Amino acid sequence: MLRRKNSAPVKALILAPYLLILYILQSTLFTHIELLGVKPLLLPVAAAGISLFCGRVEGGVFGLFAGILMDLSYNQLTVQFTLLLTFLGVLLGLLSDTVLVQGFPSFLLSCVLELALISVYQVLSAAVLHSAPMAAAAGVGLRQTAYSLLFSLPVYYFSRFYCRVTRQGRGI
Amino acid sequence: MKDFISKKVIYIGLAAILVAVLAAVTMALTGGSAGFAAMLSEPFFKPVKSAMTSLVGSLEHIYGYLYRYDELETENAALKVRVAQLEQEYREYTEINEENSRLRSLLGFVERHEEMKLEPATLISWTASNFSSSFTASKGSSSGIELYDPVVDEYGYLVGQVTSVTDSTCVVSTVIDTTLSLGAQMSENGETGVAGGDFELLKQGDLKLSYIGDSTDVVIGSTVVTSGSGGVYPAGLVIGSVSGVAVSSSGLDPYAIVEPAADIENLVHIYVIRDFAVSE
User: Fold this and answer.
1) Do B8 and A137 make contact, defined as CB atoms within 8 angstroms?
2) Residue B200 is nearest to which of A38, A74, A136, comparing CB atoms?
3) Is the same domain home to B152 and B194?
4) Domain ranges, residue B234
5) What was the pLDDT predicted at A137?
6) Which residue in B12, B20, B48 is closest to A57 by CB distance?
7) ipTM surpasses cut 0.90
8) pLDDT per residue over A140-155, tens digit each?
9) Residue B115 phi/psi, 5° resolution?
10) Which of B118, B153, B174 corresponds to the end of one domain?
11) Residues B13, A60: C-beta atoms closer than 8 Å
12) B11, B12, B21: best mutation site toward chain A, by most A Cβ within 10 Å?
């Protein structure tokens, strides 16, 4: 019972630095390391990992904070990624709780789903709000998804390790 | 369904909505000039991001050195006879000389535009977005910077415009960003148009000059400057030079491709124009 009570602060102590490190990397180091003319997104990949391995509640909370940091790293005043990543965190957590098996193929599928939805949103925004040609915007979205997927492997191992450790802590 | 949508999930949803409401209230209170997350997080993230940007700069310097090592070695061998001269040149390329050069350029610009009030700032971090071009700079409203202030480099070339401000930082959208458009004219023939970012030109670092007439004589290499119409930008700031001419996908509207005069990718120091004399 004591372990259960203490599990939330312990999780926060592990996840907060993890989130901040990914945010700093995404908004500083990787803005200088472009591949195929695009920069990668690390926070959505991390959010997919936590949702898949820890379920809808932790996935939603992690998605909420990852979304706030995504909006910050995009230099924008609006909160579209806060809402989008929270929703996706809960959705992927629900799928994980019901139909998805917790393995690398499912994780990769979750990452593709999350990154693809973000790209679709960005492509449509660029096309509708800034008259960007759909094909060119979709190309950027595809390359962004592909580049971001390169980071799925380290994130997968961290997420799996984190959930194993915290589940033991909860006595599950 | 009850199992899926538990109380905790509802609380998370409410938290996300609360964040959205707070952001909307903050934007309303600040007149759309700052987001609440940025205002809360800036005291923590500004020094961390500055340190990371500095570290990345050092790493890029080392990488550049290693990458060009063979080339430098060959060049060095050919120039051995001029060692003394090279040493002199090396000294000239120290950081202090670069800084002096930058300040001298600025001084020249300031002397030519005494009516302008400039606020120097440094670049902290670039946006992570692949769909826009903006960066965070080190000064904010406490230094007198306001929303929509124009931003130039040390040579007076137009860099962009302030599109959000917090107390100690501001976000600058560059001239190649798709959200930016401004009145412009070609200095050679006085033809006017609207300069602004274009998604297809964004990745190559160019912008376009639209609404130019069919009969306009566009000369490659022509200098494009701000027209000053609207009073947001001072007239005569150099935006860039024409590098090509194209026609829109509809085939009806010709436009000029403009290469920015400011070295957008390698910006370090910028100057925010806080005030200027409007001449219309």
Assistant:
1) no
2) A136
3) no
4) 181-261
5) 92
6) B12
7) no
8) 999 999 999 999 999 9
9) -75, -10
10) B174
11) yes
12) B12
Residues 9..38 of A with a Cβ closer than 8 Å to B: which?
24, 26-32, 37-38
CATH architecture of the domain with range A2-167: Orthogonal Bundle (1.10)
Find out whether B49 and B126 touch, Cβ atoms under 8 Å. no
pLDDT tens digits, B197-242: 999 899 889 999 998 877 777 888 999 999 988 888 998 899 999 9
User: Does residue B136 share a domain with residue B225?
Assistant: no
What is residue A90's predicted lDDT score, i.e. its pLDDT? 94
pLDDT digits (tens, 9 = 90+) for B71-108: 777 777 777 767 767 666 777 777 676 777 667 776 77
Asked if the Cβ–Cβ distance from B56 to A32 is below 8 Å, we say yes
Tokens 């957008």 correspond to what residue? B264
- Asked if B159 and B207 sit in the same domain, the reply is no
Q: Is residue B116 part of a domain?
A: yes
Distances from the Cα of A88 to the Cα of A69, B269, B276, angstroms: 15, 39, 47
**Which of B22, B130, B173 should we substitute to test contact with A (largest number of A Cβ atoms within 10 Å)?**
B130
Specify whether the CB–CB gap between B84 and A63 falls below 8 A. Answer: no
pLDDT digits (tens, 9 = 90+) for B9-23: 888 888 888 888 888
**A119 Cβ under 8 Å from any chain B Cβ:** no
| Token pair for A54 | 């820890």
Rounded to the nearest integer, the mean pLDDT of chain B is 84
Are B195 and B208 a contacting pair, CB within 8 Å? yes
Name the closest residue on chain A to residue B129, using Cα atoms. A74
Q: Is B207 helix (H, G, I), strand (E, B) or coil?
A: strand
